[in-house]
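Researcher: Structure prediction, please.
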Amino acid sequence: YWEGDMIFRDVGERRAANYKPARKYLDAGVVLCANSDIPSTVSPNPWVGLYALVTRKNNLGHFVAADQAISRQEALHAYTAAGAWLTREEGDKGTLAPGMLADLVVIDRDYFAVADEEIKEIEVVMTVVGGAIVYGRA
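Model: Predicted structure follows.
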């Protein structure tokens, strides 16, 4: 997302067409994990990453490998359950189910219902970790 159009300059149009091929990975059965880990993604905001996976648009609004877009559900899975699987914590984390740790965020709008352009504007209202509220927006 934050790379803007540098990808086209740095590797050219042909190679940019294969930039972060999320759809190819999923179709091949690869477990796709996504993150908002600084400094590799430039922004700690996971909603920007979800937006980029779903729309394949960069910060300038230009498409980068548009055919590699994935669904909102697939993108959310990459940020949650897939990450727990990668760290071998899928028995405790990654989904909301009986017996699992209920670490979660409450957001200000419905990720599955908002327009694509609103995904990157979603804000966290509350964060719960280990059953305790650790963040609450005033």
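Model: Residues 6-16 form the longest helix (11 residues).
Researcher: Thanks, that helps.
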